[in-house]
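@here heads up, posting the sequence + SMILES for the zinc ion run so it's all in one place. Ping me if the SMILES looks off, I pulled it from an old spreadsheet.
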Amino acid sequence: MAYICQLSETHSIYLENLGEQTVITTTNSSPGQQQQSSSSFTTGNWTKPPQVFPASGGVAIAISGSRGDCTIQVRGNSIAVTSDRVSVANAQQLHVQQVANVPTSTMPPMEPMKPMEPMKMGDMSMGGNPMEMRMGNMEMRMGSPAGSSHFCSQCGAAVKSDDRFCSSCGHRLG
Ligand SMILES: [Zn+2]
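bot reply: prediction finished. Complex structure tokens:
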């Protein structure tokens, strides 16, 4: 159950009873942008539709709920429960219209995050596990698990880490 009270062409107040909560959403739209703020108050279940009256600097909303009557004052963007009773007798009630639902957000839905692209810079790429670099006799190895290939320091042939002699040139390893 939701109601809208159109205060002006650009300013409207939505009222919704969610469980024991009264949710008040004010929307202020101007060309190119829309402001929206909402507050909720525990009022109990409404026993009749809310009534909206003009009040100093804004409007007062009279809620009759299962927890009793209360008045919520809306001034610009500030929304607060007030103990002031609206003098309903003199005040002219604003038109409140029932609506199907309250707009929850003016933001477009977020697109899901795209998975990270693999790292690439120009034509350089990094990869391979274990990572090995070789320059002349010098060898660098990162994250090399035991038993992976080594190279003979004499001839450069691939040898196993537990080989004692190079299978290619017979150089003593280790
Ligand atoms: Zn060798």
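MO: The chain has two domains: 2-99, 129-174.
MO: One more: The longest strand covers residues 21-30.
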